[in-house]
Amino acid sequence: MAGIPGVPAVTDDTFAAQVLAAEGPVLVDFTADWCPPCRMMAPVLADIAREEAHRLTVVSLDVDRNPQTQAAYGVLSMPTLMVFRGGEPVRSVVGARAKARLLRELDDVL
């Protein structure tokens, strides 16, 4: 997967600096090239990254290339969307969903 426009990729090596040490909330998209629902979520996440940039950072992590981070957070299904705040996961949702529903599910942790 070429990645999601406007959504930076993180790796096992950069996860701590870009996600755990971030100032505000970070939405991590745990994704994989072989995952059709992940591809469905790409435009949704690109929209959210652009529209919610004032209160949320969105990043993507390829689980096949970054197995340490996937294992550390027990991610078994793709896509898993996990919000981190202050270095800790505060919300996790699994599976593709519409943008409005995702924003509703995340609203109280943003």
TrEMBL record:
Gene3D superfamilies: Glutaredoxin
Top-level taxon of the source organism: Bacteria
Annotated disulfide bonds: C35-C38
InterPro entries xrefs: Thioredoxin, Thioredoxin-like_sf, Thioredoxin_CS, Thioredoxin_domain
PROSITE patterns recorded: THIOREDOXIN_1, THIOREDOXIN_2
Domain Thioredoxin: 1-110
Family annotation (PANTHER family): GEO12009P1 (PTHR45663)
Family named by the database record: Belongs to the thioredoxin family.
Protein name, entry field: Thioredoxin
Native organism: Streptomyces kaniharaensis
